[in-house]
Amino acid sequence: MTAHGKNDDYEETLLQTNTKLAEEAKNGNHDGNPSVSDDDASNSIDAIIDAKSYDPVLTRKMALVNSAIDGIGISRFQWKLSFLNGFGYAVDSSLIVCQSIANPAVQQEYGRPTARIVGIPLGSQVGLLLGAGLWGFSADIIGPRFAFQTSLFSCAIFVAIAGSMPGYISFAAIGAIYSAGAGGNYIIDTRSFLEFLPTSHLWLISFMAWWAVGYLVTGLLASAFMSRFNCPPPHGVAPQRCARADNMGWRYLHFTCGGLVLVAALARKLLVRMSHTRDEEVVTAVDAVAAQARRPHSLTLALAEGVTRLLAYSTTMIFANWFVIGMVSPLYSVFLPFSLQSRGADTGDGSNHQTWRDYAVNQTAGLIGPIIAAVFVESRHFRRRDTLAVGALITMVLQFGYIQIDTEPQNLGNPGRHYRRLVNITTPHP
Asked: Major location, coarse class (predicted)?
């Protein structure tokens, strides 16, 4: 949800507009003609959709909830949700790179059915797209509870199954299925966190982008497994296939990632009770947050039902934004193992140890990205658009510079550009 507000006082304007709309709803103005000016409403929600075509009744209902959350402020519940949903982001990125890391080893063991189609990355991308649609629309229709509680469990099960697949096609198919669960998390994690986030802490949306943590954990696991339990890297145009017993690294990687995802799924299930989107459940959820924070709030069931009517809510813009992110980030990750291996062959020994050591170092550098993004989007001198522009410019320069490397230290050091790439990815901000 990339914000392109009309001024640098976006958060202050949003808070003021939420307060006006909430007061208006409390005073009984529910006739569909809000007294809040079009400019006020536009400033607050034009960052997501066109405010003039937006339903004024839904706008008031959202303002009631937002005003109540702003009144409660930040509490232990939001911090807990931030970490749990952050781990969900880490799971998403971990599973995406998991199949890309395994791709060369799977090809070396089973071969590839056709030279025209690279089935594993293609299956992953199809799964991400279908998963985002399935889990996202189910959250809109029946509420977020089902998607929030089941997406990670489905990932954990099918990641473990993928490690047992006996062939290329079966592995690509199971990889597509667990990627579907990861695609759902891209939508659900941000939505469920944003619903409970006060306006004063919107920067946490940027800081919560834990993709780099998932990349790092998977990179370290790959460094441990793929460098020791993997066939030697292929040399020549038609390398010989290797035996299963000599190529267990990618299987161990999937088994371990599946276990970690299961732990995250259990933590999400036990520590957070996600409600549906019916009025009474929304009020109950806000009551629970206020009780934990020991602070009052202004939302009541009578107020919420007072502005209720049947409506259709489109999330096309949000889906489109996350779809683009879901395409760009895996595109980089899919080719990174091949790039590091080929560059290692030119600047070093090209061994499994060097390839996966470089991979782990690359992902470590990416940890800086969310921190930089969270600081810059709140800076008066940068804000969101300037952070995107500067980050994109730096990334472009470093990408062009990468093709000029000719030594091993340059090959290892230049992937530090990855954290600049993450500055661009993590900047989407409500």
From this structure: membrane
Q: In this predicted structure, what is the pLDDT of residue 322? A: 59
**Residue pointed to by tokens 């808070």:** 15
Distance CA(259)–CA(157), nearest Å, equals: 9
What domain count does the chain have? 1
CA distance 149 to 153: 7
DSSP-derived secondary structure for 214-254: HHHHHHHHHHHHTTTSSPPPP-SSSPPP--GGG--HHHHHH
Integer Cα distance of 219 and 214 in angstroms:
8
- Give SS3 for 47: coil
pLDDT at 269: 79
**What was the pLDDT predicted at 89?**
81
**C-alpha distances out from residue 394 to 25, 103, 358, 371, Å:** 47, 30, 21, 17
CA separation, residue 28 to residues 36, 305, 330 (Å): 14, 11, 49
Q: Is 44 part of any domain?
A: no
Q: What mean pLDDT comes out for the span 319-330? A: 61
The answer as to whether 121 is a domain residue is: yes
CATH number for the domain harbouring residue 131: 1.20.1250.20
Lowest mean pLDDT among 211-215, 286-290, 414-418: 414-418
Q: What is the pLDDT of residues 367-411, one digit of tens each?
A: 777 777 777 777 777 776 777 777 777 777 777 776 666 676 766
Query: Residue 252 falls within a domain, yes or no?
Result: yes
What is the spatial distance between Cα 24 and Cα 207, in angstroms, rounded to a whole number?
Answer: 33
**Nearest alpha carbon to residue 184 among 215, 220, 158, 216:** 158
Owning domain of residue 251: 73-274+323-419
All residues at 6 or more sequence positions from 419 whose CB lies less than 8 Å from its CB, including other chains: 212, 365, 366, 367, 368, 369, 372
Residue 427 lies in a domain: no
Q: For 197-206, write each residue's pLDDT tens digit.
A: 887 777 777 7
Assigned token pair, 31:
């006739």
Buried b (16+ CB within 10 A) or exposed e, 165-174: beebeebbbb
The mean-pLDDT minimum among 20-29, 175-184, 306-315 falls in 306-315
